[in-house]
């Protein structure tokens, strides 16, 4: 009998990463053998903050998680504009045999996913886990479209906290942030909203 290692792939374009992202990572660590996390640029979004700062914040977010299983890793080397390329890098790192990769996305990306580069090839090689986000319902028709593209898709039984990077950037809602991220933002003077707050 083969032992399958279950690896969650969670690249995020969060600007900045929030307590919601941290809750998702913590939840993933309870369900997977390894959780690989990195900061990425999303070609469908404009990013105000350079990738190097977003990566530093993701690293801090992970450092702040107490995981009994010690199974969360920051893997910035997996970052790419294209998830298919991130998957190829993960396969080079962990191999293809006896490893089951699960691509983790927020429900806000479900509409966008069919337009991703090489989506059918990607979906043949990974399981897809959609994490519900407040304000972004997962429509049955979208799931059907993903399944028609070959997705083995599941919905996480977790709803992330009702916080968002956008709410922080636009309104300075610091409740969205962990203390380490908030300190980094102030130290680096990353967002205009911090001057208002």
Can you describe what's shown?
It contains 8 helices and 6 strands. With 197 residues, the protein is an alpha/beta fold. Strands 3-2-1-4-5-6 form a 6-stranded parallel beta sheet, with helices on both faces. The termini are far apart. The mean pLDDT is 92.
**Could you tell me the radius of gyration in angstroms?**
16 Å
Largest sheet data: 6 strands, parallel
Please list the strands of the largest sheet in the order they lie side by side. Answer: 3-2-1-4-5-6
Per DSSP E runs of 2 or more residues, the count of β-strands stands at: 6
- Mean residue pLDDT: 92
Beta-strand content bin? 15-25%
Structural class: alpha/beta
Would you list the SSEs in sequence order as H and E? EHEHEHEHEHEHHH
General shape: globular
Number of helices: 8
Helical amount among residues, as a percent range?
A: 25-40%
N-C termini distance: 57 Å
Low-confidence stretches: none
């Amino acid at each position: 009998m083969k032992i399958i290692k279950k690896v969650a792939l969670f690249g995020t374009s969060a600007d900045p990463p929030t307590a919601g992202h941290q809750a998702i990572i913590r939840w993933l660590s309870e369900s997977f053998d390894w959780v690989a996390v990195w900061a990425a640029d999303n070609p469908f979004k404009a990013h105000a903050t350079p990738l190097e700062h977003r990566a530093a914040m993701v690293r801090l977010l992970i450092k702040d998680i107490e995981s009994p299983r010690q199974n969360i890793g920051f893997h910035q080397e997996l970052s790419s504009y294209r998830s298919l390329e991130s998957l190829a890098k993960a396969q080079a790192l962990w191999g293809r045999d006896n490893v089951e990769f699960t691509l983790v996305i927020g429900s806000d990306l479900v509409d966008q996913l069919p337009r991703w580069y090489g989506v059918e090839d990607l979906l043949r090689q990974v399981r897809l886990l959609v994490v519900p986000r407040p304000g972004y319902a997962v429509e049955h028709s979208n799931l059907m479209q993903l399944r028609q593209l070959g997705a083995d898709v599941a919905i996480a039984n977790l709803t992330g906290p009702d916080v968002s990077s956008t709410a922080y950037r636009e309104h300075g809602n610091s409740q969205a942030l962990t203390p380490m991220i908030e300190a980094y933002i102030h130290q680096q003077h990353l967002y205009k909203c911090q001057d208002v707050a």
